[in-house]
Model the fold of this input.
Amino acid sequence: MTDSIAAVIKRTAPNAHYVGGIVRSSLLKRWSGDIDLTLPKEEVKKTALALAKKLHAAVFEMDPQFGVWRLVTRREGLQIDLSAWQGNTLKEDLLRRDFTFNSLAYPATAPVQISLKKQDGKTRVLLKGLRRAQIVDYSNGMQAVRARVIRLNSPRVLAQDPLRMLRAFRCAAELKFTIDGSVLRQIKKDASLIWQSAGERIQEELVRLFNTSQAYENVVLMDRCGLLTAVFPVLEPQRTCAEVYYGKGGVLTHTLNTLRRMEFLLDNLPKAFPKYAKKLVPLAQDKALFKMTALLHDLAKPSTAKVVGDRLRFFYHEERGARMAKKELEKLHYSRADMRLICAMIAEHLRPSNLASNDVITDRGAYHFFRDLGDAALPLLLLCWSDYTSYVTDAQLRRILPRSGERMMSLERAKKTANIGKTLRHLQVLSLLLKKYFEQPKKIKPTQLINGREIMQALNIKPGPQVGELLEKVADAQVDGKVVTKEDALAFLKSLPLSAPENKD
Done:
């Protein structure tokens, strides 16, 4: 039915034009998520209802104020949005749009084929056979597409909808376009307006940006324009904090380097974890969540910075930073589940480093790590990898990566080789934890040999916190290899000195 959709649109909506992303993306041979049509205001409703009937589509009015209707075909799952001209003519409508490459229109009556495909469970669409001579272009949008550059239709469009500033960087990342210098200068002027946009809309643009492989370079550009700290004012104090340690830009330089390393890691899991990459791929699918965590992981360093002796310390910055991150994520209307995971990673991102400060990482230490972190444990290892590797150069990272799966180098040796040795040891700790998780699951989550009721009966004690503590002691003993069977567990428990046991009677 794909070819007939274009025919139905041609017959039913002869005054409509394909507009915006569908035209631009089709010229670039990129698949889109939907079709956008625009037509005179008085025709939108009747055309939407007529199209819905002929295409067997569900239909509803999305925005009465701006005359926007949405159709979703039942068979193909194709989304078609119809909107009224903003202004009295098509030209007025197109020139009110954000970027010149989004101001292109193609008559519904002109020759075109609509191709559909399923991708990640969603219907994607492409217009084939566009005749360039029939494309309506009042702002040199075609030239912008050919040059792969983002230009504004007017300097006013950013102030009219400040979210367009973020959209510029998102489009640059998704399409691999360059943002024109005039656009960057205008963003610098208008950056302070960004929170006139709703938090959930800001989140949507950031998520789409972070899901690309060009997020880092565009975030750096955002920072140069003042937009990054306009979105996250809490990052600004990082810029002048600890410059002696981190160099120019202070903690913010480290934060952005961590984001860069995270982007590399998510795109190159086999290089970082060759043995476990395939098992980590499902975990790493949500690139945006991990990159947001990297961006927010050290929020509290400026407020906790303190010189102790000759060392700069950031006491409890991870705990305070998690609380600060939660406030930022709430402003962006993140889900509770995503907030919990991000904040858990931030609050515990020193745990692997603390393990690395021991000469040996015991099975018990690894067990406690995975027990305490729960679902956040594996995601945390990805954050820590990005954090640790931000302290070495690209050349140094290439040198140490092949050794990251080796047996841990000694603390003494690591201390003698400055950052590169410390980083390598930390990476070896991460590899060891992954090995225990994937290859020694009984060490990480031992089988329960005895339950709380059995403990109470065996020791003649009442329900209470003591029962949970005893269960943990049994689990520790299992991990240490001291307890193997239920009988071992009972004997072990009876050997323990119980503090003020409560009699059931």
